[in-house]
Amino acid sequence: MQPKATRIPTLLVTGSNGQLGFELRRSLAPLGHVIALDRAGCDLARPDELRRLVRELRPDIIVNPAAYTAVDKAETETSLAHAINGTAPGVFAEEAKALGSLLVHYSTDYVFDGRKVGAYVESDAVNPQSVYGKSKLAGERAIAASGATALVFRTCWVAGAHGGNFAKTMLKLGRERDSLRVIADQFGAPTTAALIADVTAQIVSRHWLHDRRDAFPAGVYHLAAAGETTWHGYANEVLRGAAARGVELKVDPALIEAIPTTAYPLPAPRPANSRLNTGMLRETFDIHLPDWQQGIQFLLDQILS
Ligand SMILES: NC(=O)c1ccc[n+]([C@@H]2O[C@H](COP(=O)([O-])OP(=O)(O)OC[C@H]3O[C@@H](n4cnc5c(N)ncnc54)[C@H](OP(=O)(O)O)[C@@H]3O)[C@@H](O)[C@H]2O)c1
Fold first, then answer.
1. How far is the CA of 91 from the centre of ligand 1 (A)?
2. Which pLDDT tens digit goes with each residue over 24-80?
3. pLDDT, greater one: 222 or 3
4. What pLDDT is attached to residue 215?
5. Please, are residues 32 and 210 in contact by the beta-carbon 8 Å criterion?
6. How far is the CA of 297 from the centre of ligand 1 (A)?
7. Fewer CB within a 10 Å sphere, N or C end of the chain?
8. Domain count within the chain
9. Rounded to two decimals, what is the model's pTM?
10. Residue whose CA is at the smallest distance from ligand 1 atom 1
11. What is the DSSP letter of 71?
12. What's the gap in Å between 253 CA and the centre of ligand 1?
């Protein structure tokens, strides 16, 4: 039998040093030729350069985890946050449309105000309360306006082995301090960058590379680990997991003080309810999303090994 002559797809990945960018480099590698660029190689604050780069590389798939993620700093760096999170995704979308390529982009629970009772579905009304949330919503809207074939995954409470996150902060503080106070009235699901990256690769492989593209279910999907907790419950899981792995902690995980959001004021407001209903993603793409605790235990194995 003759070997099948297939062209290897080119995938452009932005923000290669971010939590998610790092994991995407791993998960997308079996799908084709991955060109992963950091800020120096692909600066989202420079739209003309983005256009030139995409036209030169002609990727079959653009995967854009790069973002302005400094939520509090965004309150004062409004135009930079909007350029990176609002304008740049629109530029990628326009270029993807011109090439007939797929755009995969990531958004956030911060597009919601967090006042809903129960988990947010994709069609719920958006109402971002922070500059970061507004800038991410602008990115979603620019993609929709372009008419490009795009997947936008809204996720929440992301943690990866590469980069900074709440789990790593708790590990550091738990070793240094004998008491900790953590917010217990915001709800969400800690979601590992590895899970988001693996789900991205599965969907792109099964539904874009190996299925009929005219039936491709483009759109906005909620992608988060199963279950829910608070930052306090999350801290408890991380520190109990660390203690079980022999880490010497100053703090007793059972004695972490639960505090309300009002006791820890920050420049940018956070949604009290970050619960994302993932039913549409699970049903459309036949994807199983494991419990958040499973992801955090894997993460601890990686971080502490
Ligand atoms: N982290 C969360 O809890 C969370 C929650 C919901 C949604 N999300 C979304 O999920 C996606 C991935 O987040 P993440 O946690 O992986 O973020 P991250 O770890 O902060 O990584 C963001 C990456 O974007 C890069 N970046 C920033 N400005 C850039 C620019 N002008 N040009 C090119 N790259 C630039 C950063 O580069 P440097 O390394 O040079 O700074 C960094 O590598 C983002 O879209 C984010 O909005 C994140």
1. 17
2. 999 999 999 999 999 999 999 999 999 999 999 999 999 999 999 999 999 999 999
3. 222
4. 85
5. no
6. 23
7. N
8. 1
9. 0.97
10. 158
11. T
12. 29
